[in-house]
Design goal:
homodimer; 325 residues; mainly alpha; globular
Chain lengths: 325, 325
C-alpha cells in the first residue's frame, strides 16, 4: 500500500501536537482513540500532494486543511460504524462498541466541528474557497452514505446508480482533498478541476477493484475475508451486473442463494462465482474499473506541470491500482 | 413568550426560500420536517438583534448567520433526541421516531454542514471571526450535552458543575448568536463580550427558572407537566441543592423516594416538595436565578448604545424572565 514517508511524517508530527481538552473525557477520549488507530492517512496526504504539485512552498500552509480532512474522514467512520453496526475498525473495537452509541454520536459531532476548526487555521484568504469545497464534499459524503443504506433496502439498483453512490460515498473526498491542496497552492480553477477529476475517478476505480478483489483476490494478501461480500449479500458491481444480465432461471437461482447463509449453503461463494463466470461478470467489472483508471490518468496527464512533479501522484495511483490486497 | 414579528418575519421568509435537494429523500426530508415544526426561533432572532443593536443597516447581512444558528440548533435537537430517546419534539414525532436512528444521525450531520454553508454566505471579511465564535460555541454545546449525560450516571453533582453544564448546553448558544450579530455589525471586541455575557447569563437564569417552574409553575400556563422533573428523577438546581443541604435522615428519605415511581408512590411530587420546603430550596434557587438575571441586565446596560436601541433586548429579557409558562 502507498505510503510516502515525507507526507506521513508531516501529518504524524502535527497529529502528535493535537491537544484535545481532558474533560469531558467521554467526549474527547473517543477522538484521541480513533485518531490513534493507525490508518493509512491517504486523504490528508492528498491535500499536501495537491499543494506541492502546484507550489511546493505552500505545502506547510496545507497542513491544517490536511488535518481537517483526516478529522472529517474519522468523523464519518465513527458515525458510519454506528449505522452499519460494525464491531471493528482497523482491527480494534469501534467507538460505539468501546463506549456506546450516544458517545459515538456526540464525539463524532465534536470531531466534525474540530475539522472545521482546523480548516479555519488555513491562510485567511483561502478559508472561503476551502470551505466551499469542504462543505460540498461533506454533504456529498452524507448523500453517498444515505444512498448506500437506501440501496440495501431496495431490490433493484442499476450500475449507474451504484457508481454514483460510490462516487459520493468515497471518491469525492479524495478529489476534494486534492482540490483543497490545489486551492492553497493558488492554482487556476481549471487545474483544480483536473486534479479533482483525477481523484474522483481514481477513487471509483479503487472501489470497483475492491469489489473485484473481495471475490477474486489472493487470500494471502487480501486484507479481508475473500468472499465476504457474497456471504453478506452485499450489492457490489459484480452482483448488480449479474442481476442485470442473468436469465430468468438464473435470477431464480440467485434469489434462492441470497436467502441461504453459509450454514445452509456451504457452497454459497462457489455457486455465486459460477454464476459470475457464466455471464463473464469479472471481465465486465474489470472493464469498468479500467475505464475509470484511464480517465484518472488522463486527467493527471492533462495538468500542465512538469512530469517529475506529478511523479508522487502517479506513484500513488499505481500503488492503489496494483495492490493485491 | 417573546416574539418580535419583524425579526420572525425575516427569518420565516428566508426559511421559505431554502431549497434542499429532493434526493436522497431520507437525508433531506427530515431537514424539511424539523425546520417546519414551528419553534420560537429565539436564537436566529438574537443574531439579527445583535447586528441591529450596533448598526441597523447590517441586519440584512446577518440573515445567513441567523439561519446558520437556527440550523445548528435543529441539528443539536435531532441528535439530542436520539440520545435522550425522546418521542416528541414540539408536539410532533422526533426525527428518529418518524424515520429511524440512522436517518436521524445522518440527516443531523447534513444539517450541521448546511449550517456552515449558510454561515459562509455572510460578508466575506466576517467569515473568519464568525467561524471562530461558531466553532467554539458548537464544541461547548457538545461538551454540555456530554456533561448532562454524564451527570445522569453520577450520584453527586455540585451546584457549580450543574450551572456550568447548563451554561454550555444551552446558554453559550444564546450568547454566541448575539455575538455573531455584533461581529457582523462591526463593533468592538469589548462590546461583543458585553453582549455575549448578557446572552449567557440570561440563558442560565432562564434555565434555572425552568427548573423552578417545573415544580412551582401554574399548571394552566406551564407548557409541560408540572412535577415532570421530579417524576423523572432529573437532577435540577432544586434537587442538587436539596442533596447538598439535607440531613442524613432526609438524604435517606430522598434516596428511597428516587427508587419509587409514581405507581408505587403516588405522593412522590408532594413528598419531594415537602423536602424542598423544609430546606427553603425554592428561595435558594430563586436567589440564584435572580443573581444571573441581574448580571445579564448589568451587561446589557453597560453597552454604550442609546437606551432606545437596546429596548428590544430588554423586552426579550423581560418576556423570558417573567413568563408564567
Amino acid at each position: 500500500m502507498f505510503n510516502n514517508s515525507t507526507y506521513s511524517q508531516i501529518i504524524q508530527d502535527r497529529l502528535k501536537q493535537v491537544d484535545f481538552p481532558e474533560q469531558p473525557d467521554n467526549l474527547y477520549d473517543p477522538l484521541r482513540y480513533i485518531l490513534s488507530l493507525a490508518g493509512k492517512r491517504i486523504r490528508p496526504q492528498l491535500v499536501l500532494m495537491g499543494a506541492e504539485l502546484f507550489e511546493p512552498r505552500t505545502m506547510k500552509d496545507a497542513i491544517s486543511a490536511s488535518l481537517a480532512v483526516e478529522y472529517f474522514h474519522n468523523f464519518s467512520l465513527i458515525h458510519d460504524d454506528i449505522m452499519d453496526n460494525a464491531p471493528l475498525r482497523r482491527g480494534k473495537p469501534t467507538v460505539h462498541q468501546k463506549w456506546n452509541d450516544n458517545v459515538a454520536i456526540l464525539s463524532g459531532d465534536a470531531l466534525l466541528v474540530k475539522a472545521y476548526e482546523q480548516l479555519c487555521l488555513s491562510p485567511v484568504e483561502k478559508i472561503a474557497p476551502l470551505l466551499q469545497v469542504f462543505n460540498k464534499t461533506a454533504l456529498e459524503v452524507c448523500e453517498g452514505q444515505q444512498l448506500d443504506m437506501d440501496f440495501e433496502e431496495r431490490s433493484q439498483v442499476s450500475e449507474v446508480e451504484y457508481i454514483d453512490m460510490i462516487r459520493l460515498k468515497t471518491s469525492v473526498l479524495l478529489g476534494g482533498a486534492l482540490q483543497m491542496g490545489a486551492i492553497i497552492a493558488g492554482t487556476s480553477l481549471e487545474n483544480q478541476q483536473l486534479l479533482y477529476d483525477f481523484g474522483v475517478n481514481l477513487g471509483i476505480a479503487f472501489q470497483l477493484q475492491d469489489d473485484i478483489l473481495d471475490v477474486y483476490g489472493d487470500p494471502k494478501t487480501f486484507g479481508k475475508q475473500v468472499g465476504g461480500d457474497i456471504l453478506a449479500n452485499k450489492k457490489t458491481i459484480l452482483f448488480i451486473k449479474l442481476k442485470e444480465l442473468a436469465s430468468e432461471e438464473d435470477k431464480q437461482l440467485l434469489t434462492e442463494l441470497l436467502t441461504h447463509d453459509i450454514d445452509k449453503e456451504p457452497q454459497k461463494v462457489e455457486k455465486m462465482k459460477a454464476l459470475y463466470a457464466k455471464y463473464d461478470i469479472p471481465s465486465l467489472a474489470i472493464y469498468q474499473k479500467e475505464k475509470f483508471t484511464a480517465v484518472a490518468y488522463e486527467k493527471l496527464e492533462a495538468i500542465p506541470c512538469p512530469k517529475a512533479s506529478k511523479q508522487s501522484l502517479f506513484n500513488l495511483a499505481n500503488a492503489l491500482m496494483h495492490r493485491a490486497q
